[in-house]
Amino acid sequence: MVTVNHLSVEDPDDSFPLLPEAAEAETPTPVYHRQRGVTKSESKEFFLSRRENLALSLVLLIGCYSAILIPAYFPLDKPANISDDSLYPRDLVLLNRSASLLSDPCQPLWCLNHLKPLSCSADLLDIPVFVQQDRPESWDLPPPLGLQGSEENLALALASLPHPDLPSSLKKEGGCKRCVVVGSGGILHGSHLGSHIDQYDIIIRLNNAPVPGFERDAGTQTTIRLLYPEGAPTSADEYKNTTMVALVVFKSLDLAWLTSVITKQPLSFWSKMWFWKEVVDDVPLKAENFRILHPEIMHKTEEVLQKYALKHGNTVPTIGASAVVLALQLCDQVSLAGFGYDMQHPEARLHYYEAVRMDTMKVQVVHDVSAEKLFLRDLVAAGAVTDLTGAL
């Protein structure tokens, strides 16, 4: 029989005194670990000290946070998992068709003549384009389909605009004109339509859809940028080569924002709280370069879309659909680029300038994009407008 008389509890790392029994022992008996006969002195060499363990943990923690946060502040130039076909035109047939269209002379009254077969044609003609100071109106509907309840802010905004009416350069009387409405759709990516877009008489863009960095597909010039405050570009570079910014009024406070950016008098902190995201304080354009889109454009677009809607409800037209109706008022011939949501391919690009996927559109309930696509398809089928990117 083997008898163990004393058990050593000595630990060189501990600052506590030894137990009396251990202190009396002349020769401490080494304690052996049960795992493969490794002594405690040997295991000490394997395990890190407390200080080293803490330092290693901090390094790993900082490394993990860096891996998560750095890509958010320094995004990749090329979206992940999206093939970069920007070096070559995606569809040479469409590109050649666009070139052929531009090589032909402008056809006066083309849209008007091709709209006649459509049942909604009467609703799409002779709509006022911009709100004018010398034409006071009684508004029956609140924004965005009217300006009821916004009369005070409207008066202040109009007072800050030296020329609120339609410029002579945009009137049809000045000769046959071609419009192109540049949508934000991912279908525009890789189209190489930029040089074609710049050849149109009137180029309409939407909200903060960028131009710098995307000139090959989207062009460089902007005649009218339709926007609302939360959708206004934040970079001054986006307003270069821009003739006009037209405000789409979704709420009365949008008019106060317009007055603010024209007069350079900042909005109050309380007013800014009512925007659903931060808005810019400065738009680097002169006062004569601003307009207010007439809400009848939105109203008529909404009425037409109700005829295509599968479920009738309180939906608001997108700025894109309203821009098409605007173009029909300004130009003899209208082309579209970057239109058409492909909901059958949820992994496809939603926008030409970012990696957001198509399936994100499924969660929004404000716009009826299905009805809008049917409406635009009818315009294309009737020959009233031309789809340059072929997604309609």
From TrEMBL:
Chief localisation class: Golgi
Localization per record: Golgi apparatus membrane
Membrane topology term: Single-pass type II membrane protein
Pfam families documented for this protein: Glyco_transf_29
Enzyme class: transferase
PANTHER family the record matches: SIALYLTRANSFERASE, ST3 BETA-GALACTOSIDE ALPHA-2,3-SIALYLTRANSFERASE 5, LIKE
Transmembrane segments: 54-74
Function: Transfers the sialyl group (N-acetyl-alpha-neuraminyl or NeuAc) from CMP-NeuAc to the non-reducing terminal galactose (Gal) of glycosphingolipids forming gangliosides (important molecules involved in the regulation of multiple cellular processes, including cell proliferation and differentiation, apoptosis, embryogenesis, development, and oncogenesis).
Record-linked InterPro entries: Glyco_trans_29, Glycosyltransferase_29, GT29-like_sf
Signal peptide region: none
Recorded catalytic activity of this chain's protein: ganglioside GA1 (d18:1(4E)/18:0) + CMP-N-acetyl-beta-neuraminate = ganglioside GM1 (d18:1(4E)/18:0) + CMP + H(+); ganglioside GA2 (d18:1(4E)/18:0) + CMP-N-acetyl-beta-neuraminate = ganglioside GM2 (d18:1(4E)/18:0) + CMP + H(+); a beta-D-Gal-(1<->1')-ceramide + CMP-N-acetyl-beta-neuraminate = N-acetyl-alpha-neuraminosyl-(2->3)-beta-D-galactosyl-(1<->1')-ceramide + CMP + H(+); a beta-D-Gal-(1->4)-beta-D-Glc-(1<->1)-Cer(d18:1(4E)) + CMP-N-acetyl-beta-neuraminate = a ganglioside GM3 (d18:1(4E)) + CMP + H(+)
Entry GO CC: Golgi membrane
Any single biological process term in GO: lipid metabolic process
Protein name as catalogued: Lactosylceramide alpha-2,3-sialyltransferase
Any GO MF annotation of the entry: lactosylceramide alpha-2,3-sialyltransferase activity
